[in-house]
Amino acid sequence: MSEIKIFDKVFYLMMKKILSFLSLVLIFSCQTNPVISRVPAKQTAEQMEKQEFEMLMKQDSIHKHQTAAESLDVLLNENPDDRRVSLIINNNSNCNIIVRFAGEKFYNLPIYRHSKNFIVVEKGTYSLGANLCNARYSATKTFDDSSTMTLTENQ
C-alpha cells in the first residue's frame, strides 16, 4: 500500500509540474498584437457645416416642388388668418450658407452662393443666424408678412 501512496504522490507532483509548465507556456506563448484602429480626425466647424449644407440641399431638392407650391399659395392668397409667411432670401456672398431660424419652430434653409432660396415659416419672431464666408450674421426678426431678405458679405 505504501507503493500506491508513493506512486500517487509522485503522480500528483508530476501532474502539478506539468500543469504549471503548460500554464507558463500558454501565458508566454500568446502573442498580443497591438490593435490599430482608425480614429476619425476631428472635423472643423467649416467641414461639418459643408456636410450639413450638402445634406440640406439634397432634402431641399426632394421637397422643392411642394415648397414652391406652398410658397406661391401663401403669396397669392395673402389671407390675414393664415399663420404662414413666405420668405425669399438672396445670398449675394461668395459662399454657400445655411440660414438658421430659431423661434417657436426651427428651420434651416440652405442657399447656394450668388443664389436665392425660399421657405414658408409660421408667423412670429425668430433669431436668424448664418455664416457668411466665416463672418457671422445674426439678427432677430419678426415675420408678419411675406418678404424678401438679402444677405451680403462685408468686403
From TrEMBL:
Domain DUF6759: 62-153
Superkingdom of this protein's organism: Bacteria
Name of the protein this chain belongs to: DUF6759 domain-containing protein
Organism of provenance: Chryseobacterium taklimakanense
